[in-house]
Input
Amino acid sequence: MEIKIREAGLTPKEIIAEKMKDPGFGRTFSDRMFVARWSGSGPWSDAEIIPYGPLALDPAANVLHYAQEVFEGLKAYAWEDGRIALFRPEKNAERFDNSARRLCMPPVGAELFLAAVEQLVDLERQWIPRDGKGALYIRPTMIGTEAALGVKASSEYLFYVIVGPVGPYFPTGFKPIKIHVTREFVRAAVGGIGFAKTSGNYAASLLAGEIARKKGCSQVLYLDAREGRYIEELGGMNVFCRFGDTLATSPLTGSILPGVTRDSILRLAPDFGLKTEERPISIGEIIERAADGSLNEVFAVGTAAVVTAIGSLLYEDQEVTIADGGVGQMAQALYDRLTGIQYGRIEDPYGWIRFID
Output
């Protein structure tokens, strides 16, 4: 599909440079955005790259009432040799369509998804941090736009992509965090939409997140909805536990997001002599093995932070320290290996990198 490019007012280089000094995360956006539309049936149409700006939505638009919305998150990295790299964007395209199908939305297809991302990033190269720490965050999104009240799938959709520079997730260094394990709230249940990257899953996590912060914790670890016994994931990150030479993570049963970083960690782990297991992990096992020393580390993974070491868990108002409470050896090693591949500092033997020509 041809993507038309409309003229846009460009931010002066000196202003971009100023914004780059402290871009934060998700607060600064580039000059352009991609849009395409779908109506009734047939292929996506009206694909354009237009000036970044507000969306015009009818007050009765489906997304505002029935939450037909899916999104993705990935990054573009500036390499020292001047090339711009994407990390496994095909996996994001695949998950985007899987999420869409679950919410009765039309798949975009990998070809259009990748073309939209690559052409927009290519035009917005000046917004990509070049310090080897930051990146250009990419947010593809689809929403139902039909103006009609009534619980049904929309007949009209908007697919759009916005991008913006982000700094390192840990600007002061790689440090362990404290997590609240909640039994009061669940994130998702098998048979629901837990595996889909959709706004409702994140909205449901906000109250639990506020309670966690009041308890001095950074994020929430959810247990399974059926028994309230097995760990699932954080609000937006998958979780790994290392028991000696075995790296374990919860299985993808339909209630957990199939993270791209999660899959990458499972692929990388054997390079470090680790066996991997995808199996149920009970909170009881974590507490018991943290006490006897056989739980060596716990960490969370996701696109934004890549790898986040978990130093302690707060469970039923009792703090459980993981090993020595610091950054685990494998959390650091996997973080270094993965970011090394993403920024081109080390070889990519897996074929994960896709360059923007």
